[in-house]
Specification:
heterodimer, A: mainly alpha, globular, B: mainly alpha, Cytochrome Bc1 Complex, Chain D, domain 2, 2 domains, two-stranded antiparallel sheet, 39% helix
Chain lengths: 426, 295
């Protein structure tokens, strides 16, 4: 896809700059002339949505950091100060806290879209692995951010999650002491988490640049999973086609985001986090933020602490190996009758695990978590096996063909209208 | 193709949201009844506080609750907040007069000594006890929680599927509903249950044992009278409880009215903007660059 550049500098200044630092050429090739498969559906707008969310989180976060105090005795009060006395502080804080949740909503849609359409397969393995790296960084960032208000759930969530590292043999205890900056979660912990919470988003931004670079080398996958064969017929230029579609998708997403910010700002949070952190009082149920719940359920499903930590880690790391686990040559599950059903089952299992993660770890919930954990990993085993014997449906010969088949399949009325529309393109 | 892909995207988004919401019911059912839902003037997308209710609620808080409960967590709430827009909206004069009734410690002065002076609107509400230990000593070992953000710090389990419906009904008054239920929830303990000294039985308290004795009685706080000489609202425990809860909601979320008002404008803007973008997108996507139908 990284073919020759179609950028033509028009003015003298542009030619002068282009010979020295072709930055306008880079922008033009990336966001204007870059060819995009013409059959992308709205699930492909979530990449742009994620870029927007990262930027939004960084902007709101930087302003919040101007008013926030990372100290165990002052953090809670400074958040209340932001909510009450900083102009539009309540808006910034609710945008940022709900923004984290919406960021994860978008990233989960993005990941499941990638799985369904086989976007991890050759030649997009590196692109996919970079995505898993971003996901991990996001989890670390979100976890540390949740600690900052220094409420009860902040404190006890930090205690539970950092304690997980103590399960590692030999180095475990040292790592935990290092994370805490002492021998329990306390002010030094809060300070380093604040520092890292400010640092990690910029690391995410760095990996996002690599992610986009890799994307622009191999080009986008598409709902048919058939690679672009003829740029003229199979693709449209990024601007205006993808630009307008991405912006439309983004505004719809922001609509949902705003609904939560303005009308249900505490829906995704925990009431306990409006109680200041108290090391002497443990909340009756310590629950992480919703986006960690499936992994939390896997952690608790294993009766052994180290086993639980390893299972939880594997549940994330296994994603990075998907390109080699999936043995089928066909990318899109639209053409894979069995894998497709596996996908929906996997999605259901993930939602089930999320529900179980929110439930107390007792009785039937533990058994159910264990079954669902097996099913979670079972998906990857099944995916490896299915590829060997599954008989895929015939693929369209090209992206253009699949689109044209759709046009022909549409009713005559629609075609007539299309034909009657005056071509106003200049 | 177009509608399918849009539907796909919606399914994707919905799935994400379901995953998000599957979470929120964090607490296990503690047993015991759920607090009944009250009618609140501030619920829903256009909800606003009832000024008179907030003023009554403040009166009850000041005369009853504040004898044991502080409301100066992190110095977040100041007396001046009582006259800011979107709250009880006492006049600045009323707030200054109220503040002056308190004696607050200030200093050190030029001699290096702390001194007492009448309160000012910029002060916090003086706490009833100098520290947690003193509060516990005076309350049989229990620590009355600070009221500043209490309405957001209390909730009850909604359970599946109610918590999903809550997204659309915008029900988020678990805190005040719980507070009203708790203040009305004092009953005799069931047969065979003996209470230790300092324990009280409450239907809605998780675990049913609460250190706070029943704080409100009918007729305890005098309410403003109408022209006929009768109180404008009944002076009952239930009415007191509702007014207190409403006041606590305001104190926990003093910019709620501004938030919902701005939200309404933002949502309308986004809806129109999205509509315009949709038709622009449709126009652009009608044709390929070479003029052939795009899909």
């Amino acid at each position: 896809m990284s073919g020759h550049s179609s950028y033509v500098p028009k003015t003298g200044i542009e030619r002068w700059l282009d010979a020295r630092l072709p930055i306008v050429r880079l922008a033009h090739d990336t966001a204007v002339s870059y060819p995009v498969p013409r059959n992308l559906n709205y699930l492909w707008t979530f990449g742009g949505i994620l870029a927007f969310m990262l930027a939004a989180q960084i902007v709101t976060g930087i302003i919040l950091a101007m008013h926030y105090t990372p100290h165990a005795t002052l953090a809670f009060a400074s958040v209340e100060h932001i909510m009450r006395d900083v102009n539009f502080g309540w808006l910034l804080r609710y945008l940022h806290s709900n923004g984290a949740s919406m960021f994860f909503v978008a990233v989960y849609v993005h990941i499941f879209r990638g799985i369904y359409y086989g976007s991890y397969k050759a030649p997009r393995e590196v692109l996919w692995i970079l995505g898993v790296v971003i996901f991990l960084l996001m989890m670390a960032t979100a976890f540390m951010g949740y600690v900052l208000p220094w409420g009860q759930m902040s404190f006890w969530g930090a205690t539970v999650i950092t304690n997980l590292f103590s399960a590692l043999p030999v180095i475990g205890e040292t790592i935990v002491t290092f994370l805490w900056g002492g021998y329990s979660v306390d002010n030094p912990t809060l300070n380093r988490f604040f520092s890292l919470h400010y640092l990690l988003p910029f690391m995410i931004a760095g990996v996002v640049v690599l992610h986009i670079w890799a994307l622009h080398v191999v080009g986008q996958n598409n709902p048919t999973g058939v690679e672009v064969k003829n740029v003229q017929k199979d693709t449209v230029p990024f601007t205006p086609y993808a630009t307008i579609k991405d912006i439309f998708g983004m505004v719809c997403f922001i609509f949902v985001f705003s609904y939560f910010v303005f009308y249900q700002p505490n829906f995704m949070g925990h009431a306990d986090n409006y109680i200041p952190a108290n090391p002497a009082v443990t909340p009756s149920h310590i629950v992480p933020e919703w986006y960690f719940l499936p992994f939390y359920a896997i952690l608790r499903a294993i009766p052994d602490k180290l086993g639980g930590v390893l299972a939880m880690g594997s549940a994330i790391v296994v994603l990075a190996f998907l390109p080699w686990i999936d043995t089928s040559k066909v990318k899109s599950m639209s053409y894979r009758p069995i894998a497709r059903q596996l996908f929906w089952a996997f999605l259901a299992v993930c939602i089930g695990l999320g529900y179980l993660g929110a439930m107390p770890a007792e009785g039937g919930y533990v058994t159910a978590s264990q079954i669902f954990t097996v099913l979670y990993f079972g998906f990857f085993v099944a995916l490896a096996l299915v590829g060997i014997f599954e008989k895929p449906r015939p693929l369209p010969s090209s992206i253009a063909d699949s689109v044209l088949a759709n046009i022909k399949g549409a009713s005559g009325v629609q075609l007539a209208t299309a034909a009657a529309e005056p071509n106003v393109k200049g | 193709m177009k509608t399918t892909s849009f539907r796909l995207a919606l399914t994707g988004l919905a799935t994400g949201l379901v995953l998000a919401t599957a979470a929120v019911s964090a607490r296990a059912a503690e047993g015991g009844p759920k607090p009944p839902q009250q009618k609140w003037s501030f619920s829903g997308p256009l909800g606003t506080f009832d000024r008179a209710q907030l003023q009554r609620g403040f009166k009850v808080v000041k005369e009853v609750c504040a004898n044991c409960h502080a409301m100066n967590l992190g110095n977040a709430v100041r007396m001046r907040n009582l006259s800011q827009p979107g709250g009880p909206e006492f006049t600045p004069g009323q707030v200054a007069a109220l503040a002056a009734t308190y004696q607050v410690t200030d200093g050190p002065n030029d001699q290096g000594e702390m001194f007492q002076r009448p309160g000012r609107p910029a002060d916090t509400f003086p706490a009833p006890f100098p520290n947690e230990q003193a509060a516990r000593a005076a309350n049989g070992g229990a620590y009355p929680p600070d009221l500043s953000v209490l309405a957001k710090a209390r909730t009850y389990e909604r359970g599946f599927p109610k918590f999903i419906f809550d997204i659309f009904t915008q029900y988020q008054e678990q805190g005040p509903d719980y507070i009203v239920a708790l203040l009305n929830g004092y009953t005799k303990p069931p047969e065979g249950m003996t209470l230790l000294p300092g324990q009280n039985f409450n239907t809605y308290m998780p675990g049913h044992l609460i250190a706070m004795p029943q704080p409100l009685q009918d007729g305890q706080v005098e309410y403003p009278k109408g022209p006929d000489g009768k109180p404008q609202v009944p002076e009952t425990i239930h009415q007191y409880a509702e007014d207190v809860a409403a006041f606590l909601v305001w104190m926990a979320e003093p910019h709620m009215e501004a938030r919902k008002r701005l939200g309404f404008q933002v949502m309308i803007f986004l809806a129109i903007f999205a509509g315009l973008l949709y038709y622009t997108k449709k126009k652009i996507w009608a044709r390929m660059p070479d003029g052939s139908p795009a899909h």
